[in-house]
Design brief:
Number of domains: 5
Distance between the termini: 10 Å
Radius of gyration: 28 Å
Largest sheet: 10 strands, mixed
Strand content: 25-35%
CATH architecture of the largest domain: Alpha/alpha barrel
CATH class of the largest domain: Mainly Alpha
CATH topology of the largest domain: Glycosyltransferase
Length: 879
């Protein structure tokens, strides 16, 4: 056995310690509820988190002290505020508030003092958070609407003029909306968010936003304007999921409190009431599912400014609140995050042009055009082209049941004013790569006519990947584009045909999501949606939110295990158990329900291995495995929260399920489950159902099965999640990598070499159904690269990457890999290069964390290496 050469790179040599300033450590990246200086915190015990900026080897936090108060200057001096945690001898960097009761609509400041490994302390910069309404009783405004019914097509505009006579210190707009909104003050649109508020089960949870509007207000006369869109609240066109029959459906409405604090300390609240006025504007139709129709001839100049004459505007009407549960929207917003100019343009005829934006995406288009007044443009969005170059929507409009002429699918309709017109939809988005613009009269268009905007929840990137394999790099990029295209305040399946929060797609892609993006606030919001949708008996629908569709016979464990898997993965990645705790009762109801209909530990409640290549797998096997997964997570959660009786009950249940699965489906003489498909072998392996003594044999059979296909896939969504992991974790990393980088049919790479810029819904490019070109249900591949060639894994015993398991593979054909992940403790770097017959492996462990490196089987040394925080280089001899 050759010895591993371990070179530790230190930022500070021990001999120079005396020359360094005392403060080598500081607390940075302060967040409250995982957001930076948030507004509208409703949590009674908000969570504070930070990181250590300490580049020394072995850097760690030995203690912390949190200070919270309303006076930032006093906080600097550490004067008494609403909470002083006292010095805590702890390395924790995620701590819930535990002070005096927080007051609604109040700004608080906080900081943290940390002590480093040598016992020296330093204080962070001052951060802040503002509480929200913290309950419906603090609202002063009334719910108002234009009084029209659900069938009215035109979009309502609202305005109110008010006067301020004193100098303004600060102003906040608190706005709750059933539907979607845009807010403006004195002619300026407030903020840069899109599609606010997020989609929820509106009759059970209504979200509100808090906007800092201090800069928009002026002394004297002010005008406030609101435009309301339908969103999912008033879904007018018909589709197979019956959104038009949702129990909450109504005409959009809003409630607003504009709270002003003056320089002299006095306060005033401008509210939504009967003094507001309403009218229609140029948006004559809007729907989040189909498109927006805009008549530029009807534009109203200065409608949201004080001097506008609104004498012709009508009265508003009071409305009941859509729900009694008003909750602050505490998640990252949806924004326009990247623009694309056309890669090419094709003129079909004098009235028709097709633009290729070069990237499949979710988003909207901005149109700049001039033509004669009354000219009508149809701006059609899609993913495919016909042979003649025209746009082809046949793969995405199959479930739409509306009037395709009057309300065309994924098509905006723009009527020109005769001036220089600019149009961009306010209240919807599309999934597309191509844009076809057709005019009712000849018109001249060019590349400057269209700009596309990639739109999604503004989650911070966490993962980075760059390897010597162009295919790996492109697969990772395509996965991330597909994921972001399907993140609109909740994870969706596709951004065009459905826009549904399919539960299976959500949990199958959760590791890919969390390795690549800081999505905890999105998923905590979605888990609240799960709790809202859960029936009393524990059953969940397989699209969430839903208007009532999805409580059928197939919405079983392989899909709706989201309620357990996603909170558990959040705990693993963030070390934050809040979502798991919030969902505990819901998980318990769900598992108890399935247990009640599955007396022998086996269940057929589920959809099965959706969209397989060719081999069908046993649904009872796969659903029962997910039953085991949920029961195991529930038992682990019970242990974490100290529910001893529950822990014993669900540990017993999980053992019962595992025994039943193996008794019925495992042929111990052959080491094969059921009929031995790739899915039937990989799913039990990946989820830990295989008896320890049978593990090697089942894994060998899986490897053989993959070799028989010449390292190609023969799985659906459940197998696509399990296969690569089952191979890699059970002695066959080379096989797993060959499958991952396969570029002939059927494989992930087959999509890429055929021009895909996102992941697809079907392995077969010529399939006739399930053929979205921007889908996330096969998205495990993007996360698997981090677990395999990066080898970066959380330690379940010290979650949140407090301790890191480094288990990289060095597969044949890959010469180098640079992968990093920005964990809650800081950036983890796992870079390696092949140099001759050696691997030079560069590692970075963030401050306050540790790691264990486990060498792969193709390295001569089997020495496990313990690593402290800092930079390290390992030289590894290959066999």
């Amino acid at each position: 056995m050759r010895r591993i050469l371990l070179t530790t790179m230190l930022y500070m040599m021990a001999g120079n310690a005396q020359a360094q300033p005392k403060n080598n450590c500081s607390a940075v990246q302060l967040t409250c509820e995982h957001l930076v200086n948030p507004l509208g915190i409703d949590a009674v015990n908000p969570r504070f988190s930070w990181r250590l900026d300490d580049t020394r080897n072995g850097a760690r936090q030995s203690a912390y002290q949190l200070f919270v108060g309303q006076d930032s200057l006093a906080l600097i001096k550490e004067a008494k505020g609403v909470w002083d945690s006292g010095k805590q001898l702890s390395s924790a960097m995620l701590v819930p508030y535990n002070g005096a009761k927080l007051t609604a609509r109040t700004k608080y400041f906080w900081k943290v003092k940390v002590w480093d490994k040598e016992g020296l302390s330093t204080s962070s910069a001052i951060a802040s958070f503002e509480t929200g309404m913290m309950g419906k009783d603090n609202w002063e405004g009334r719910w108002i609407s234009d009084g029209k019914d659900i069938h009215e097509r035109k979009t309502p505009y609202f305005r109110k003029v008010f006067t301020t006579k004193k100098k303004i210190k600060s102003a906040r707009a608190y706005i709750a909306v059933a539907g979607l909104y845009e807010l403006s003050i004195n002619g300026q649109r407030v903020g840069d968010h899109r599609l606010d508020p997020m989609y929820t089960r509106f009759d059970r949870r209504t979200l509100y936003l808090v906007e800092d509007v201090t800069a928009e207000l002026q002394k004297g006369e002010n005008a406030i304007g609101v435009i309301l869109g339908n969103g999912w609240y008033n879904h007018q066109p018909m589709a197979v999921w019956n959104f038009d029959k949702a129990p909450w459906r109504d005409r959009p409405a809003f409630c607003l409190d504009l709270h002003i604090v003056y320089a002299d300390g006095s306060q005033e609240t401008i509210v939504s009431d009967e003094q507001w006025k309403t009218a229609y504007g140029p948006t004559v139709y809007n729907n989040i599912y189909t498109g927006e129709h805009y008549d530029a001839r009807l534009e109203i100049s200065n409608w949201d400014k004080p001097k506008f004459d609104d004498s012709a505007w009508g009265a508003v009407q009071y409305r009941n609140a859509p729900s009694a549960n008003l909750v602050a929207q505490q998640t990252v917003p949806i924004r326009l995050l990247k623009s694309y100019l056309p890669k090419s343009i094709k003129k079909i005829d004098p009235q028709t042009y097709v633009f290729d934006m070069g990237q499949n995406m979710a988003g909207i288009t901005k149109i700049k055009v001039k033509g004669s007044a009354g000219t009508v443009l149809r701006i059609k969005h899609g993913e495919r082209l016909h042979a003649d170059g025209r746009l082809d929507q046949s793969n995405i409009d199959v479930y739409y049941r509306g009037d395709k002429e009057a309300e065309p699918f994924q098509t905006d309709i723009l009527t020109l004013s005769g001036r220089d017109d600019e149009f961009m939809a306010k209240f919807g988005y599309k999934g597309f790569r191509y844009v076809e613009i057709s005019s009712n009269v000849p018109i001249a268009l060019d590349k400057s006519t269209v700009t596309a905007y990639f739109m999604h929840s503004d989650v911070r990137p966490l993962g980075e990947l760059k390897t010597s394999s162009d295919l790996v790099n492109r697969l990772w990029d395509a996965t991330n584009h597909a994921y972001l295209s399907n993140l609109m305040g909740y994870p969706t399946d596709c951004p065009q045909r459905e826009k549904n929060g399919w539960t299976g797609d959500g949990h199958l892609a959760i590791e890919t999501a969390l390795y690549n993006f800081d999505g905890i606030t999105v998923y905590e919001k979605w888990m609240a949606d799960h709790r809202d949708e859960q029936q009393e008996n524990g059953v969940l629908p397989d699209i969430i939110p839903t208007g009532g569709w999805g409580y059928g016979t197939a919405n079983g464990l392989d899909w709706t295990s989201t309620i357990a898997i996603i909170p558990w993965q959040i705990y693993q990645f963030y070390g934050d158990s809040r979502a798991l705790e919030d969902c505990y009762a819901a998980i318990k109801r769900y598992v108890d329900y399935v247990d009640g209909i599955s007396p022998f530990g086996l269940t057929t409640f589920g959809r099965g291995d959706w969209v397989p290549v060719k081999s069908s797998s046993n649904l009872e096997l796969t659903s029962s495995v997910y039953f085991y997964v949920d029961a195991t997570i529930l038992a682990s959660a019970a242990k974490l929260f100290g529910h001893t009786a529950d822990q014993q009950k669900y540990e017993s249940l999980s053992k019962k399920i595992k025994t039943a699965i193996n008794a019925k489906f495992l042929d111990t003489s052959k080491g094969i489950y059921s009929n031995g498909t790739q899915t039937e072998l990989s799913v039990p392996l990946f989820w830990g159902v295989v008896p320890e003594e049978m593990n090697a044999r089942v894994a060998a059979n899986l490897n053989k099965k993959v070799e028989e296909t010449n390292f190609h896939l023969d799985v659906g969504v459940l197998g696509a999640k399990a296969l690569l992991n089952a191979l890699k974790d059970n002695g066959y990393p080379e096989t797993a990598y060959k499958v991952a980088v396969q570029d002939t049919y059927p494989s992930w790479g087959w999509w890429i070499v055929n021009g895909a810029t996102t992941l697809l819904e079907n392995w077969d490019l010529k399939a006739t159904r399930d053929i979205s070109d921007n889908h996330m249900m096969f998205g495990e591949i993007g996360g698997w690269f981090f677990k395999s060639i990066g080898g970066i894994l959380p330690d379940p015993k010290q979650p949140g990457f407090k301790h890191i398991l480094l288990k990289p593979i060095f597969p044949q054909g890959l010469k180098e890999s640079a992968i990093s992940y920005d964990s809650p403790f800081g950036k983890i770097v796992s870079d390696w290069k092949l140099k001759g017959d050696k691997i030079v492996y560069d590692i970075k462990i963030p401050a306050n964390a540790t790691a264990t490196f486990y060498p792969p089987d193709n390295v001569k040394s089997s020495d496990v290496v313990q690593l402290d925080a800092g930079k390290h280089t390992l030289e590894l001899q290959l066999k």
